[in-house]
Amino acid sequence: MTLNRQPISDQTWEGIRTEITLPALGQVRRRLSELMEDPEPVMQQLVRVFIDDGTFCPGFQFLPGGQLRPPVLELFQRAMELQIPHNCFTVWMVTPSRELAGARPVDHLKGAPAPLLRALESHRCARTGP
Predict the structure, then answer these.
(1) Which of 45, 85, 95, 114 is the most exposed place for a label (fewest CB within 10 A)?
(2) pTM score, two decimals?
(3) How many CB atoms lie under 10 A from the CB of residue 117?
């Protein structure tokens, strides 16, 4: 996967893993199974990233108790409509945005969704599939 046609570096993924967490999909499934009777509806809505042969879930999408953050759900749904790949969406979330006055989308999740949606609409990511 690429961001602006450049490969996403291992250093970028390591930064996300360190700051926000990037648990493996299997770990997330096990944790959600401990927290809720049927984790499948939540599993189907997850932002996932695909690194080498692994599938991971960025921690910015989770609330305490295993539920998903509504603003991330809304943004991710729109990203899928725009055909922004999962990996690219994740990197966009942690990258300073000119449309947000240099702030990162992940730092605006408690505010109104409109500025984030506008920033996402103007994002120039390789649109090559989910």
Answers:
(1) 114
(2) 0.87
(3) 16
